[in-house]
Every structure is written in C-alpha cells, then in structure tokens.
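2024-03-11 09:14:02 INFO queue: dequeued item Increased DNA methylation 1 C-terminal domain-containing protein, len=341
2024-03-11 09:14:02 INFO validating residues
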Amino acid sequence: MFQREKFVEFNENALAAGRVSGVDPIEQITKRCIRIVKNPEDAEVIACVLCRGYNFRKSGFGSFTVIVCDQCEKEYHVGCLKKHNMADLQVCTYMLFLELPKGKWFCCMDCERIFSALQKLLIRGEEKIPDSLLDVMKKKHEEKVPDTPTDFDVRWRVLSGKIASPETRLFLSKAVAIFHDCFDPIVDSATGRDFIPSMVYGRNIRGQDFAGMYCAVLTLNSRVVSAGIFRVFGQEIAELPLVATSSDNQGKGYFQVLFSCIERLLAFLNVKWLVLPAAHEAESIWTQKFGFERMPVEQLSNFRKTCWQMLTFTGTSMLQKMVPPCRIIDQLVVDVAMESS
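2024-03-11 09:14:37 INFO prediction written
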C-alpha cells in the first residue's frame, strides 16, 4: 500500500479514477459515491387506491379523473369516490363544471387534521426544547467539551419553502448547506440534477414530487446545527429521507434532540410508522440507537402501492419504526391541540 500511495502520480489507472496522493483511498471512494433517486417510471404505478386501476382521464372531468389527496398523496378515481361514498362527493359533483378541484382536497378527516396541524406549526415558528430532551444533549456536550457553559438557547422549528419569508429562506439555505456538507449530491439519474435543494424547499422536479416535504431544523443560539426532511403520508406512514448535523457539531446530541421532536410531533399526529432509507454503514446506528428495524420486503411493497412517492436510494436499506405514543404533552402539543379543536 505504501508503494502504491508513493507512486500515485505515475499510476495511469489511479489518475483516471481521480485518486489523489496522500488521501485515504477508502475515504476518497466513499466521497465519490453519489446516491441516485429511483425513477418513478421504475416503481409500481397505481393510480387509484380503491380499485387499483391505473387508467385515467387526461382531459375533461369524469369517472376516471384522478384526484390526489393534498396530504397523503394517494390517488383516487372520481367514480370510485362516488361508489364508496367517500368524503367531499358534493364538492366533486360540483366540480363537473370546473374540471379540476380548486384549493386543497383531502381524502379523509385525518388527512385534513394532519395538514392543518402542520400549517399551524409553520406559522408558529420556533419552539423552545423541553428540558426533558435537553438533558441528554447537555450530558453529551459536557463529555465532548468539558468545562464549558451549557445554558445555551436551543430551539426547533418546522419549515416549508411555500412560506417565503426572509427568515424561512435563510434557515432553509442553512439546511441545504448542511446537507451538502455531509452528503454528495442526490441526483436525477437522467439529468444529473441535484435533488437536495428541491427536497428542502419542497419543489417538484422532473416527475419527482417533493411538494409535501417539510424541513425541521434545530438551532443553537439562532444558528442551524441539525436538519431533517420529513413527509407525512397520512396516519399510516411518514418518511424521514434525509438528516444531517453540521460537521463541527456532530457527536453532541443535537440530532438526537431533533429526532425526538420530530417523533413527538408524529405521535401527536397519530402516525403509525416512521420509515427511512439507511446507508449500510449507518444502519447499526439507526437500529441500535433509535430503535429501527429492517422493513420486510412484503411490507415495503405494500407501502409503495399507496405511497409510491416514498423515496429510496441506491445502496440503502429501508428501515421502519413504530411511532411510540405521545406520553408527554409539552406546551407545543397543547397549543396546537387547542387551536385545532
């Protein structure tokens, strides 16, 4: 290995592979790996979750017109909604003259409640972290940086690119910077375009619909130190496709606090499962530290039949965790519950 490293600059194969003298080859290979989002064309396409049919009407408005729930993103034929006596049929009938629904449409009261609660969180802005969650972070901080004060101001908030305030844009740009610092680009296999900014800002790009994604950030003295992207597919399942902590703040317990906040939020929303794609080298951390387990192939297939937008990455395994019940009700949950009632 010493001889190979010594003469890297004279090795044509090494030069062609982009090797750099003096840099650990394994580390370099890891950094050069790029995760590729699976194309939606490769996934199983189910247009209507009621009839499992994929036939649809492209123009006009009729029985085979497909309406998508604005929260769980499930697709329904108008005719199937009428046949099963599902919600908002009067609205659907009225839409016969308008061709497409105006405003938000939800397939059930649960989806409407989840959407409303998330919108209220966006408006509320930052929230202080409960003391019960800060204890773990303070202990880790003291172990890593002894003899330093731990009376810092730690807060968290949920963000969306659809609320285009200067403050929101600033926090989202910081989240993008953290993800780019920790990950290589997540690219479209056809165009090579980086998906990370679109995921953070909740934008649609070339058949990939990220509009339902939210970005949760943890701030330390108003500075973003950890971020996570999540999406709630109704009460059944939520996904957490991307999480990261800034390189100078890793190992201090910040993400553990942010994850607890996200998990408590999902518990309040009565979400049953949280899933995420885990790189093989990080799988043990998720399973041993956060209580995840590998998702059975059959269950993944069932989830993808209704949540076909769920993200998977090349070289990762899908993990799942049942969201624990919300045992401790903090002030945030109390306030949102009162506003929703």
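2024-03-11 09:14:37 INFO annotate: The two ends are 67 Å apart (CA to CA).
2024-03-11 09:14:38 INFO item closed
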